[in-house]
Predict the structure.
Amino acid sequence: MNRVDVFSGLETQSISAEVLREKYAKGGETSIVEIQQRVARALAAVEKPKQRARYRALFLDAQQRGFIPAGRINSAAGTDLAATLINCFVQPVGDSVSAPVDGRPGIYDALQKAAETMRRGGGVGYNFSHIRPAGALVKGTASKASGPVSYMRVFDRSCETVESAGSRRGAQMGVLDVGHPDIEAFIEAKQTAGELTNFNVSVSVTDAFMRAVEHDTAFPLTHAAEPGDDLKAAGAHQREDGLWVYREIRARDLWDRIMQSTYDYAEPGVLFHDRINAENNLHYLETLDATNPCGEQPLPGYGCCCLGSIDLTRFVRHPFGLQGEPSVDWAGLAEVVAVAVRMLDNVLDATVWPLPEQAAEAAHKRRVGLGVTGLGDALVMLRLAYDSEPAREMAARFAREVAHAAYRASVELARERGPFPGFQAEAYLDSGFARRLPEDIRAAIAAHGIRNSHLTSIAPTGTISLAFADNASNGIEPPFSWTYTRTKRMADGGKQDYVVEDHAYRLYRLMGGDVSGELPPYFRTALEISARDHALMVAAVKDHVDAAISKTVNVAADYPYEDFKDLYMQAWKLGLKGITTYRPSGKRAAVLSVAPAAEAPAQPEAISLSEADRRLVLKRVIEPVLNSLRWPNRPRLPRGASCWASDAIESPEGSFVVFVSDLQNRPFEVWVNGARPPRGLGSVAKMLSLDMYTDDFPWLSRKLEVLAGTNGGTAFQVLDPETGEPVWVPSTVAALARLVAFRHRTLGIDRSAKSKSAMMEALIAPREPKTGPDGTMGWICDVLNPVTGDDFVLMVKELRMPDGSTRPYSVWGAGKFPRAFEGLFKLLSLDMRIVDPAWIAMKLRKLMKYAEPQGDFLARVPGTDKSSSFPSTEAYIARLLIHRYTMLGILDEQGEPVEQMGVVQAEAAVDAAPAARQAPPAHGTECPECHLHSVIKKDGCQFCTHCGYTGACG
């Protein structure tokens, strides 16, 4: 029985069908073949009219034999969506606020271009090194520069805003050169919770720097921008080449800071700049100083990656040797590769381009990136252990055969369609990669040119492998686990468990292999393979990949730091273009065990407004309504959402516009924007959006009533959206509430409807309990943000629960702060009175990520002697409140409930797969589906080791 026969006999896994429908199927499509037919039809439309039927059949055949176009192609090709078929781009950024410099757009022009790219579905990478360092002279305004990290925060917030207006989470890669004077701030930028959450970050290091590390010498931090007088006084000086040396640093000290951050926080990654450019086929046309968010494509400004992968498992004959000696159909692989190259070349003409500069760049060079997936499973099927030398030799041959077939196919395309316009034969063939091509290919390129400047790239293939390849191992990774149970949250709010099996494992079982006991020794999972062997696999494949390889080297939590550092040094010596590692670290998060539902929470007696009891004791109890309140998640929006925008509001504190998105005639998000929106109003909108996710209209109405009565600042007039007449409002918060309430009414939501409200029933008290002359318990803390001038006292009122514990129930401030904070305090106070602390915990964790442009500041971390940078005053408020809840034993310092009551969410236990075949959950970040801190980087993608959730790649 050969490989094709076996594959046709496999039933589709339920999870594969579910992911296919959720992410890739359009209209009435329900199967892989329907999607493949749509893609084939769309790409064949680029061909000459008389040839379209022929190529439609060829393109469908190639997909059915193992070619999987990238996710954007499968999801959007042949549809009415105005979305790009290209996964990722690089956006150049210059050293000017608006005007172009040296061919690079100004910072805010680049921001607008990046936003448009993300709006169309593309991820974006940047190198921010051209932005002048903090403290550099800004001659036009006689001021000092704030540095690239400050502008990265602006890009981060923009990505978050674009994400809130579309279905695909924005992915960004930020790169900074190792010699930039702000490199240390860049290295540590993501060590603060909530900082640059929409970025991956990498340091671009040179051979000169690595040699300085080797020889323990000093290394200069330089920039073209002139430093300020204080930096000059400290020793900054100009070199003969015109660059300014801001200071010198011991190279090993800087390297150690990079390594320590990566060891503890999994970032930054490391890119080897000189290796990338020496290998570049277009070394004569461009300098590569950034990558796309997953790292498999070093790209020039406006460059893109047009991706697809070959499922290598489809070309293994007689797998496992159960019915004959295993072998590879090399001829069949070359045939499919040739058609795949033509398809990817057609994508460049079929796609919608977000920017004309991207279209021009692609037309000039016609880069594509054909990669592989299923390598780990293919090696298992060939009875080769992933961490063995024979496996590395086989992997190298796979990569070599794909590359050579791709280059031959591109030469043939050049004979038919012409070479890419930037082709220069002698210079092209002089690149590091092209020199290694066989002589017959080099001769053909010299004679006929080549259609595509680059052809191979190994990208992460998380969901396309799951949906189109029966959960074959991703990219060049080994399988992560042979089987596991994935708990998936469904559209109706319920949950469903899926048994997920690795493709090679289920194929082995289907063919009669014994899976009841020990599997054969060539069945090797990622966690059984040493970090060094992971890196050696990249080294084995790299010489046959002209772009780069996306691979995350997972190392154990107890992996020695010195060995970890050596991985990176060896990666440089092995000639790798970059390396990314992931080590579970308690400095990020830890796996949380799910506690059983607690005893029934308290229900208050009615408390009169004149009642005086400083403890405010609650006496009666209610039964919790388990699962009545789902943990709020942002809705998935494969087709986007409608959005209503208000008229411009001119307030004494700033001008702004209110936006309210709706889905199926129900509001789900609100935000404010404008040239100078009032400070603090954005965080009010963010918190209100989380309330909208509950789909609990009485609760949302109560929140709007609270905001509508909020004073603060100066009263002003707005035009009533219903009558058009001017009306007075007491604050910007009240204006926001009036506009949101109007939008709700136009959507047919009756605020006075007395529908059942799980949120309102879970309140400790419907109104804030009042104290008499005896007072109440409380907690106060000073807040000072010297950057924004905020200087106030944060005060928390508390009451005693029937079990003797103490609970906060109100928060407010006194002093100098944005008046919109009055609305924020009112929202949080109402949230505090939800009986299950998981609700306020979720709100505070979200608020900790709230960033204000140029509002970040350094403050002491509550409960420690250390200081840290906080992205906004609101974020620090949230951190202080979490700390107070921690002091009371209600939350931990990460903002997670110590005990789960089950009112907000009850987590069901997940049946574990057999221990011998299922990897244990690993430490990581919070999973949006199971909410355990078990999300790690696997194959360049977010992967939950507890429930199997696969998230963003990059």
In short: The radius of gyration is 29 Å. Residues 1-5, 164-168, 588-632, 905-921 have pLDDT under 50 and may be disordered. The CA atoms of residues 388 and 533 lie 8 Å apart.
